[in-house]
Structure formats: structure tokens, C-alpha cells
Specification:
By secondary structure, the chain is of the alpha/beta class. It has 2 domains: 281 residues, Spore Coat Polysaccharide Biosynthesis Protein SpsA, Chain A (Alpha-Beta Complex); 107 residues, Hexapeptide repeat proteins (UDP N-Acetylglucosamine Acyltransferase, domain 1), CATH 2.160.10.10. The chain is built from 11 helices and 29 strands. The strands form 6 sheets. Strands 1, 4, 5, 6, 8, 9, 10, 11 and 12 form a 9-stranded mixed β-sheet that branches. The longest helix has 12 residues. The N and C termini lie far apart (59 Å). GO terms for molecular function: ATP binding; glucose-1-phosphate adenylyltransferase activity.
């Protein structure tokens, strides 16, 4: 980070949009918002956006919450209380609250910012970066802010480079050779290609940089327009593309990689399949995301736990794990693990066999259970002898089974079993 980028980061506030449910995660988000979902053993998804901000030199942060916010707010209070006002640092939790017009929900992403503009302006940031709180990636935002200032644009939009026909589910930017956005198309059937890269397209990451006062003016002007949907992607950005100057910032220019990461890493773990895959991928010999990179730490709330323990050494009853990641507080008691990811405090009991299991904190796997390609929610008690992953029809009746064969198991599902 050069001195100019660092100076600009110090003049910037990060506003994290963390109110979404993440309905495609089904029962996993029945009691928690998607940004509060566990990921990578110790972290929550929101920790990546927050850590990127802090590591980039941005020390003023606001987090807008809405759906099922208690778990998220508790995590922020426990894990992010190191921000100190006397060092000009702050992390404000901004729940949707009662307004003078008697409406108490954020009507959209732009409305979440508009409702908190008085708080934002109270800190006096020259720039504001709007972030989505539900993606997994490492990025130096200071480089994107510098790109915005150097371009003189009204808005700079963070974009991920994806194979062109994989962009059909995104908002896609059509740009010229100078990164100017010529058109913004939501979920196009035929996505426009990047200049010079006919097989690639630029998809919006939901990251926007504005000059604060300019954004305030835009939000006020949009409020009275007919059909205004209170959304950045649906309203504000397309209007700037049409009537102002919008610049695309490709993620590859500011992504953070260690020596182990060969290409930029960005994931939306918004489905059960994607959540399972992204966690299991971390067990690879050379994972695409390096969680061991101490130069760009992912800050989080870290529980005080004992080290993981592996016990019993009898034939057929030996606690061992292969190509797996096992968090603190886990006890692997006479069971076998292959390509599994166990979060804090998971217990696996004798003769159980786990293959491709993502077990969230304090799950308890009973004796002689056989689990394959499953996600086990927090605190679930798997009964003795339960078999999942070997009979697709039976699994689909008892649990939530995806088309790709991943089973989600929650405690209410277990409680309904006739065992």
C-alpha cells in the first residue's frame, strides 16, 4: 500500500450491507442472517469484508443489519470491540430502526445508506465504500479508492472477472478500454465481453466507491423519482451510467494473494452446495484460498478452547483425520475423517465414519454414524448409527438434499426421525 492509497483509506468510511437472509441456504439461515454464517472453521462470512477494510487502512465502519440480526450483532460485539474511538476508529452497528414515517425496514441497499446518512456525515469521511457483507474474498480496498479518485468518476464499481456465460446470473458491466461503464445489464442472457477478452465478462461484486457528499446528493435526488426501488444495483448505478460517469474496477487489480494463491479468489456461498464446496475446498493440499496468510489476517471472535484431540488407538477404533481441517475444542474419539471440515467444539464418537462432512460448532456425531457429503448445523446431535449419503431417496425424505447430493442436517430434522 503506497502513501497516497493509505491517505485515501484514512479519509474513507466503509458501509457494510449485512441485512440479507440468504434464502437459498434454507434452514441454515432460519435463525441467523447470511453474513453471520460460519465459514472456515472460526470465522463468520462478514469477517472477510470487515477484515479487508481494516487491513486496507479503513478504520471507520458501519454495519447495517436487518434480518435475524441477534447472532450477527453478538458476533460483532465480541469479535470487533477492539476498535478504539481515541484512535479515530469506530464500528457502528446500524439496525433497521423506527423512522419518523413509521417505517422500520430498509427498503433496499440505497435506502440503508440513506437512512444512516446523518451518522455517516457525522464522522466526516470524504469517501465512502459500500460493501456486501456476504462474500468470501481478500481485497485491498485502498487501491480501488485510489482508482476512483484518479478517474474522477461519480462511482467506481468493483467487478469480478468471470467466464462470459457464467455471468448470466449477475449484474454485468459493458465497459470500454478506459474502464468506463457503458451499460449495466441485470442477468443478461448474452453477457457483454470484456474489451480484449471475448470469453470473459465483468460481474458486479456489490462494491461501490463514492465521494460522500456526491452520494448524499444522488440519494436525495433519487427519492422523488417515480418507480424508485431504493437499490444501488437497480436504480443508482444504472442512473449514473446513463447520466454521469461510472468506472469499473476489476477485482484482479486489488485482490490480495499469498504465494500459495494462483488466481483471484471470490466466492458467493449463497447455496448449500456452494457453502459445502467452499469449506471442503479449504482441505485441499493447495487450497485456492490461503487462510494461513498472516500478512492479511481475517479478524474474528476467537473462542477460548482447548487444542483439538485425537483419541483411541485400536484396530477399527482409531481417531484420525486425512485431508481435513479440525478446529480448537474438537475431540475425534475413535472415528475416521476424510476431507472434512470441523468447526469449533465438534465431537465425533467411536466407530463413526465421516467423509466430506462440514460440521458447524458443537455438533456431536454419535457412535457408528456414517456421514458422507453433509452439512451439519450448529449443535446438532447425530444419533448413534445414523447413515446419510448412501441412500439418496431416504436422505431426501429425512433431510434437505440438493440436486448435487449434499445433505443439510438440522436438529429439528433429527428430532422428527423415527429411530
Amino acid at each position: 500500500m503506497d502513501n497516497e492509497s493509505q491517505r485515501l483509506a484514512q479519509q474513507t468510511m466503509a458501509f457494510v450491507l449485512a441485512g440479507g437472509r440468504g434464502s437459498r441456504l434454507y434452514e441454515l439461515t432460519d435463525i441467523r442472517a447470511k453474513p453471520a454464517m460460519y465459514f472456515g472453521g472460526k470465522s463468520r462470512i462478514i469477517d472477510f469484508a470487515l477484515s479487508n477494510a481494516v487491513n486496507s487502512g479503513i478504520k471507520r465502519i458501519g454495519v447495517a443489519t436487518q434480518y435475524k440480526a441477534h447472532s450477527l450483532i453478538r458476533h460483532l460485539q465480541r469479535g470487533w470491540s477492539f476498535m478504539r474511538a481515541e484512535r479515530n476508529e469506530s464500528l457502528d452497528i446500524l439496525p433497521a430502526s423506527q423512522q419518523q414515517n413509521n417505517e422500520n425496514w430498509y427498503k433496499g441497499t440505497a435506502d440503508a445508506v440513506a437512512q444512516n446518512m446523518d451518522i455517516i456525515r457525522g464522522y466526516g469521511p470524504k469517501y465512502i465504500i459500500i460493501l456486501a457483507g456476504d462474500h468470501i474474498y481478500k481485497q485491498d480496498y485502498s487501491l480501488m479508492i485510489k482508482h476512483h479518485v484518479d478517474s474522477g468518476a461519480d462511482v467506481t464499481v468493483g467487478c469480478i472477472e468471470v467466464p462470459r456465460m457464467e455471468a448470466v446470473g449477475f449484474g454485468v458491466m459493458k465497459v470500454d478500454e478506459t474502464d468506463k461503464i457503458l451499460d449495466f445489464i441485470e442477468k443478461p442472457a448474452d453477457p457483454p465481453a470484456m474489451p480484449g477478452h471475448p470469453d470473459m465478462a465483468l460481474a458486479s461484486m456489490g462494491i461501490y466507491v463514492f465521494e460522500t457528499e456526491r452520494l448524499c446528493e444522488m440519494l436525495k435526488a433519487a427519492e422523488g423519482k417515480e418507480g424508485y426501488g431504493h437499490d444501488f444495483g437497480g436504480d443508482i448505478i444504472p442512473d449514473i451510467v446513463k447520466n454521469g460517469t461510472a468506472i469499473a474496477h476489476p477485482f484482479s487489480r486489488s485482490c490480495v494473494r499469498s504465494g500459495l494463491e494462483e488466481k483471484p479468489y471470490w466466492r458467493d456461498v449463497g447455496t448449500v452446495d456452494a457453502f459445502w464446496q467452499a469449506n471442503v475446498d479449504l482441505t485441499d493440499f493447495k487450497p485456492e484460498l490461503d487462510l494461513y496468510d498472516n500478512t492479511w489476517p481475517i479478524w474474528t471472535y476467537s473462542e477460548l478452547t482447548a487444542p483439538a484431540k485425537f483419541i483411541h488407538n485400536e484396530e477399527g477404533r482409531r481417531g484420525h483425520a486425512v485431508s481435513s481441517m479440525v478446529s480448537g475444542g474438537c475431540i475425534i474419539s475413535g472415528s475416521r475423517l476424510n476431507r472434512c471440515f470441523l468447526f469449533t467444539g465438534v465431537r465425533t464418537h467411536s466407530y463413526s465414519e465421516l467423509d466430506g462432512v462440514v460440521a458447524m460448532p458443537y455438533a456431536d456425531i454419535g457412535r457408528k454414524a456414517r456421514l458422507k457429503n453433509v452439512v451439519v448445523d450448529r449443535g446438532v446431535k447425530i444419533p448413534e448409527g445414523l447413515v446419510v449419503g448412501e441412500d439418496a431417496k431416504l436422505d431426501a425424505v429425512r433431510f434437505r438434499r440438493t440436486d448435487n447430493g449434499i445433505c443439510l442436517i438440522t436438529q429439528p430434522m433429527i428430532d422428527k426421525l423415527d429411530l
